[in-house]
């Protein structure tokens, strides 16, 4: 059995590796090893993954402390962890918002892993991990909500339209959150209708656990090629769940059109067939043709979370 400090480091390593795997895959419309966007390139994501690791390690330590009875789950300080993680990423690279959604998804996962006993071979039981994850997100506080609002202020993600309630760009929102003791979970429930990362949180990560993770593991086993498996999983998620990052920047109709093309490519065999590869190349060019307006960033965040489950569950390349 690993020492608690070794366990926390192991969890951090797993999540950092998941981000590196996701970034390196040849996903359409996203930054990868070969192609980037103006001002945002592959090296920015590499730096971001390394910068995020200490915060994931701290989150895991907090989860271990919960499991040992040293602190309560409400005392984890998840919002502050996310804020510090995003601030560290901002210091270590100049490519803008690289990992905000991924950090929001992976930070509670790190806490939950810390709370979950490791099995033989330093792996985690995924159903047990998911139960703890639900407890972590449902136990968040108003202070956690403030931390995430500050993290969003640091990352400055595109596509943040004005919200009808608790708008992140309204300075009065934080005062109201603290005065009315509105938890981060409650804030994300409000936002879940237009943001897929938020809906993952409040619904116990259904796309991550029930769709992306099993599909990814099946493709890893079947293709023996991580790049193919990640790219196909990306297309699977995008096909079934229109990307809310795109929707906030353009329109739901355009977003649904993107999902239909992802479905078509999968039906043609994706990277496994010549016709699929040709259509994927055309799709990638189309998504990049409008700058980053059609960048399926939320889909990438969910795939990163699914990869984290794979690595925590014992996958090794």
Structural features, described:
- This protein is mainly α and about 325 residues long.
- It has one domain (about 5-310): Triphosphoribosyl-dephospho-CoA protein.
- Helices cover about 70% and strands about 0% of the residues.
- Strands 1-2 form a two-stranded antiparallel sheet.
- The mean pLDDT is about 95.
List the helices and strands and how they pair.
Elements: H1 4-24, H2 42-67, H3 78-92, H4 100-115, E1 118-119, E2 123-124, H5 126-138, H6 142-155, H7 172-180, H8 184-191, H9 196-202, H10 206-223, H11 226-240, H12 244-249, H13 252-267, H14 274-288, H15 297-312
Antiparallel strand pairs: 1-2
Helix pairs in contact: 1-2, 1-4, 1-15, 2-3, 2-4, 3-4, 3-6, 4-5, 4-15, 6-7, 8-9, 10-11, 10-15, 11-13, 11-15, 13-14
Give the N-terminus to C-terminus distance in angstroms: 23 Å
Largest sheet: 2 strands, antiparallel
Question: What proportion strand?
Answer: under 5%
Total number of distinct structural domains: 1
- Number of helical stretches of at least 4 residues: 15
Find the count of extended strands (DSSP E, 2+ residues): 2
Oligomer: single chain
Q: In short, what is this structure?
A:
The protein is an all-alpha fold and 317 residues long. It contains 15 helices and 2 strands. Strand 1 and strand 2 (123-124) form a beta hairpin.
């Amino acid at each position: 059995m690993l020492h608690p400090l070794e366990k926390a480091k192991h969890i951090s390593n797993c999540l950092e590796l998941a981000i590196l795997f996701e970034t390196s895959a040849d996903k359409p419309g996203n930054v990868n090893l070969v192609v980037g966007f103006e001002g945002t390139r592959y090296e920015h994501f590499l730096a971001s993954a390394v910068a995020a690791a200490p915060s994931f390690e701290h989150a895991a330590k907090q989860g271990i402390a919960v499991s040992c009875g040293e602190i309560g789950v409400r005392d984890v300080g998840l919002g502050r962890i996310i804020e510090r993680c995003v601030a560290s990423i901002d210091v270590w690279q100049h490519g803008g918002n690289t990992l905000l959604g991924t950090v929001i998804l992976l930070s509670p996962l790190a806490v939950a892993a810390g709370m979950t006993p490791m099995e033989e071979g330093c792996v985690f039981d995924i159903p047990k991990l998911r139960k703890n994850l639900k407890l972590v997100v449902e136990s968040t506080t108003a202070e956690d909500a403030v931390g995430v609002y500050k993290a969003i202020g640091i990352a400055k993600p595109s596509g943040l339209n004005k919200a009808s309630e608790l708008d992140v760009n309204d300075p009065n929102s934080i005062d109201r959150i603290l005065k009315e003791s509105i938890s981060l979970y409650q804030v994300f429930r409000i936002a879940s209708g237009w943001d897929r990362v938020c809906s993952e949180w409040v619904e116990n990560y259904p796309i991550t656990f029930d769709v992306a993770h099993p599909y990814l593991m099946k493709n890893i086993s079947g293709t023996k090629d991580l790049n193919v498996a990640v790219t196909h999983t990306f297309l699977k998620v995008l096909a079934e769940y229109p990307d809310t990052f795109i929707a906030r920047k353009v329109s739901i109709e355009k977003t649904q059109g993107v999902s239909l093309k992802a479905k078509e490519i999968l039906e043609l065999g994706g990277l496994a067939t010549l016709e699929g590869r040709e259509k994927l190349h055309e799709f990638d060019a189309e998504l990049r043709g409008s700058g980053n307006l059609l960048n399926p960033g939320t889909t990438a965040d969910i795939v990163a979370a699914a990869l984290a489950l794979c690595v925590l569950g014992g996958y090794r390349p």
